[in-house]
Amino acid sequence: MKINKPQFTQLQWAGFIIVIALLFGLFIRFFPTGQTSFPPNDGGMFLSMIQDLTHSKYILPEYTSYNLLQIPYAYPPFGFYTARIISDIFQVSELNILRFLPPFVNSISILVFYFLASEILKSKTLGAIVTCFYALKPGAFGWFVMGGGLAVLSHHELGLHI
Fold first, then answer.
1. For residue 7, with 0-12 CB atoms within 10 Å meaning exposed, 13-18 middle and 19 or more buried, which class applies?
2. I need a labelling partner for 63 at 20 to 30 A (CA). Which of 18, 36, 115, 116 fits?
3. Are residues 128 and 17 in contact, defined by beta-carbon separation less than 8 angstroms?
4. Which of the 8 DSSP states describes residue 77?
């Protein structure tokens, strides 16, 4: 009696590899968040900048109130407005948004990278393989999953860091 072993198609292999890349990528991106109750590294100033939008009734302030040092509000504001709106609509604390939004958005970049790589390489399997490397490459997520990742949210979405 001959047993037929199921054969995976290239598309199934690519899907399997992408799932693995996403699982490892999600773990690596959310691990720092799970280790502390505050955004890693530079979250304090960005928390203050989000709160400044509330105090200014969504009008972009000239300075941030952080440490009362009159630091110019010179960061790209898209991420701060996004965080403020999410906080207001869903009643989620700004602190939790600062902890979870940057790694979440950065995790989406794994899929975006896969589609880009598959198109450039003209192969879904090769695209999936290089996506695994991207998912684990520290430069692809290191700074973007910290509080500072919120400041570059619009740039990140455009793929300027790729």
1. exposed
2. 36
3. yes
4. S
